[in-house]
Design a protein that fits this description.
The chain has 339 residues and is an alpha/beta fold. The chain has helices at residues 3-7, 24-34, 77-82, 121-133, 171-185, 193-199, 228-232, 250-258, 280-288, 318-326, and strands at 12-17, 42-46, 48-50, 65-67, 72-76, 87-92, 102-107, 111-113, 115-117, 138-142, 159-164, 207-211, 216-218, 239-244, 248-249, 267-270, 276-277, 293-295, 301-307, 332-334. A nine-stranded mixed beta sheet has the order 6-7-5-2-10-1-11-19-20, sandwiched between helices. Strands 13-12-14-16-18 form a five-stranded mixed beta sheet, with no helix packed on it. The protein has a two-stranded antiparallel sheet with strand order 3-9.
Length: 339
């Protein structure tokens, strides 16, 4: 099965990346173009601004987003008005952006658009549901730099991760970093039916401890950032799981490591892997010291889109680069410009 057929098995897709200019918009354009002959109604939106011709950060040319007639689009009102396509307005939402409220419309002609969607995950979930309501067979969300939380299974039911040569001039280092990020996104979920029954009552809390008998202790914190010490001091010999409904950072894991053996008989459970922001060295050290991290909801990572060319002027051999990465991971690795 090729990557497009795999994508079209799902109702929604997020396209996320770990750096600028790794090919998120190019991947989006590939799907938009190749789906024409599949008789598929597509819906699209974005976190952040995308589709503009010039990157506002790097000042380099970016691929523009080209949509076909019948595409359902959610973007800021000012950008919708400035696009050169004919539109059928479907809904003016109450979701605000610096460029106006989000408007949902159907394109009645082919043409270029710019996207600026919601910045909050709950709003993005709402927009995806609306795209489906107005007829989209597949709703796609184009991600912004470092907003990998967009890949959360609470928002979309499939994810493509984009990366490439730009993350390191050394091919071996680039491969290592890309494989690590993909493996983090693909972390296994906990296989414990009783835990999930208990967790139904704990979803709204930022952190809690679950004991070996599945009783639990709530931790009174507003955010998991800078709260690791408060969590750790509540751990005892009966603790089975540390449940984290928030970000897991380097500082969070380092504090566990500094506290000796308290973490070795427990499992840290994160709501999903898009909330894990750990350097490879920290993660590897924790695992080597018998630490254990799993997820409650698994990200459905269905593909890895690779750009072997860097905006800094160097590039890797496409075939060799892809083969090196593909040997180390199970998901499909591809370059849309070579398909």
């Amino acid at each position: 099965m090729n990557i497009l057929d795999e994508i079209l098995r799902y109702n929604s897709l997020s396209i996320i990346g770990n750096y600028k200019n790794v090919g998120k918009t190019t991947t989006l354009n590939y799907i938009l173009k190749e789906s024409i002959n599949k008789n598929i109604a597509l819906g699209i939106t974005s976190i952040g601004v995308d589709g503009e011709g010039l990157d506002v950060v790097t000042k380099t040319q970016k691929p523009r987003i080209y949509v076909n007639k019948g595409t359902i689009i959610a973007t800021a009102a000012n950008l919708a008005l400035n696009s050169d396509i004919t539109k059928e307005i479907l809904e003016m939402t109450s979701i605000t952006t610096p460029m106006g409220n989000i408007v949902i419309f159907r394109s009645l002609s082919d043409g270029y658009i710019e996207l600026a969607g919601p910045s909050i995950n709950t709003q993005m979930k709402y927009i995806c549901e609306k795209l489906k309501y107005y007829g989209a067979d597949l709703s796609m969300v184009d991600g912004a730099l470092s907003r990998k939380t967009l890949g959360s299974p609470s928002i979309t039911d499939s994810t493509i991760f984009c990366s490439g040569a730009v993350i390191d001039k050394d091919l071996n280092n680039a491969v290592e970093k890309i494989v690590y990020d993909a493996n983090i996104l693909s972390l296994d979920k906990i296989n414990d039916k009783t835990f999930y029954e208990v967790y139904e009552n704990l979803k709204t809390y930022k952190a809690c401890l679950i004991n070996k008998d599945y009783s639990f202790k709530l931790i009174d914190i507003k955010t998991t950032l800078n709260s690791s010490k408060e969590i750790i001091k509540e751990i005892d010999e009966n603790t089975k799981y540390v449940v984290v409904n928030g970000i897991v950072s380097n500082e969070f894991i380092n504090d566990f490591i500094k506290n000796g053996n308290k973490y070795k008989d427990i499992t840290i459970l994160v709501s999903d892997s898009t909330k894990i922001f750990l350097d490879k060295e920290i993660f590897d050290k924790f695992i080597k010291l018998k630490g254990n991290i799993k997820v409650i909801n698994k990200v459905n990572l269905i593909g890895l889109s690779i750009n072997p060319t860097s905006i800094e002027g160097y590039n890797f051999d496409n075939k060799y680069f892809l083969e090196r990465i593909q040997k180390k991971i199970d998901i499909k690795v591809f370059n849309v410009l070579d398909m």
